[in-house]
Amino acid sequence: MKNKKGYLLIFGLLVVVFVILYSTGIIGRSVSIQETQSISANDVINEVEKIKNEVKIGLTMNEIKQLYGSNYTLVNDNGDLENGNDEHWTYRFLGDVNYKPAGPDHMIDEEGMLSGKAGVELFIGWKNEKITLFTITYLGTDKHIHFYSNVNGKIEESVIK
């Protein structure tokens, strides 16, 4: 009878240890980037395609505000972007509304993208209140950061990470 109680006690302790380890994430299922995102990969791809279809070189500030509103960040590039533009804006779509990137607004937020906190970022360069360039940054279905750019009509796409 004593051996049976001892085995039950050990079994009980093992169960408690496994429950603690599983609930803290030390053991158990692994969490992928997709599971931590509050948005689906399809939402991201649809948003990117929508932006590619709507945003064009030469659109005015008012036209962009009609499309996306006034909830943009006026980018302070500290003179880093030597492209002759008067002003730069960043719009953020589909990400955590409370998330603030750690780096400057003119840099790609790799940490936010990979963590799922940043969804799709649209960066716009303005000259005489017209678009001269825009970029779209997003996490692709392949779990890599994708970068689409249109600079004066020259379109390039690349994978960053």
Number of helices: 5
What radius of gyration results from the CA coordinates?
Answer: 23 Å
**Care to count the β-strands?**
6
Largest sheet: number of strands, sense, barrel closure: 6 strands, antiparallel
Tell me the number of structural domains. 2
Strand fraction equals 15-25%
Q: Strand-and-helix sequence, N→C?
A: HHHHEEHEEEE
As an assembly, this protein is single chain
What would you say this structure looks like, in words?
With 161 residues, this protein is an alpha+beta fold. It has 2 domains: 1-30; 34-159, no CATH class. Helix content is 34%, strand content 25%. The chain has 5 helices and 6 strands; from the N terminus they run ααααββαββββ. The chain has helices at residues 2-23, 33-36, 41-54, 61-68, 110-115, and strands spanning 73-74, 87-93, 120-127, 130-139, 145-151, 154-159. It has a 6-stranded antiparallel sheet with strand order 1-2-3-4-5-6. A hairpin with a 2-residue loop joins β3 (120-127) and β4. The longest helix is centred in the N-terminal third of the chain and has 22 residues, at 2-23. It is globular and about 35 Å long. The model is unreliable at 12-37 (pLDDT under 50).
Secondary-structure topology with pairs:
Blueprint: H1 2-23, H2 33-36, H3 41-54, H4 61-68, E1 73-74, E2 87-93, H5 110-115, E3 120-127, E4 130-139, E5 145-151, E6 154-159
Antiparallel strand pairs: 1-2, 2-3, 3-4, 4-5, 5-6
